[in-house]
């Protein structure tokens, strides 16, 4: 069972009401990969800050929990205001490590938590940390053949992923690939971040596949430099039918609000 894509495995109240387009404040065109992996719950718990906890997994595999790697290029960055789109003309690379099906101990709603993000753009890094609590770190990111590398400013290897793309490109708005609808559902949940001052904030991603293309892929990789205390270097691999390559997906972001 792919419990990472079975919402019934993680019971709890969901906030399914999505913000209107006017509620989003920025957007970019994303070209990259979305990779789901299963970890032991004990290892995933090391990714969480105080006051966040994993939702109970009531499936046949209760000792695992999903971790998602999202990496690629953010292009055509723009600000949204008053129904207008103001192009910023920026392009940069990012990788995010996300943990879905997480909740605050004093808030019953289910969220996705951004455990770490690496970015090649300093302004996006500052904004992601100061306003959203996304734990962003400046890094060098990019492809070397089939390997996506994330390195520190001094060249030290932080994380890498090896990808083998397969399948034909399909239109995102008519895509019927296994698990694709569940991926969209999971990332419609609110996203929680923790600012440096300890305040938790909630925001939303708006993943628009209307003009996008999607195809299946396979991926594996490694966290080569642990980014949190207690986390050790470790390999990871995707689950069956759990990796997607996307082109021209519009990635919008709402303004954050206090979680509690």
In short:
8% of the residues lie in helices and 52% in strands. With 260 residues, the protein is mainly beta.
- Look at the structure and give the mean pLDDT: 91
Number of separate structural domains: 1
The total count of strands amounts to 17
| Outline type | globular
What is the number of helical segments per DSSP (H or I, 4+ residues)?
3
Q: What's the CATH first level?
A: Mainly Beta
Gyration radius, in Å: 17 Å
Low-confidence stretches: none
CATH architecture name: Beta Barrel
CATH topology: Acetoacetate decarboxylase-like
**Cα separation of the termini:** 34 Å
- Outline the biggest β-sheet: 17 strands, mixed
**By helix and strand content, what is the structural category?**
mainly beta
What percent of the residues sit in helical stretches (DSSP H or I)?
A: under 10%
Question: Can you write the helix and strand succession as a string?
Answer: EHEEEEEHEEEEEHEEEEEE
Strand content: over 45%
Name the CATH superfamily assignment.
Acetoacetate decarboxylase-like
Task: Give the tags.
260 residues, mainly beta, Acetoacetate decarboxylase-like, 17 strands, 52% strand
Write structural notes for this entry:
The protein is mostly beta strands and 260 residues long. It has a single domain (21-258), classed as Acetoacetate decarboxylase-like. It is 8% helix and 52% strand. The protein contains three helices and 17 strands. The protein has helices at 41-45, 122-130, 180-186, and strands at 24-40, 52-54, 64-81, 84-87, 92-104, 111-119, 136-138, 140-144, 147-151, 157-165, 170-171, 191-194, 200-203, 205-208, 213-223, 234-254, 257-258. It has a 17-stranded mixed beta sheet that branches. The two termini are 34 Å apart. 39% of the residues are buried. The model has no long low-confidence stretch (mean pLDDT 91).
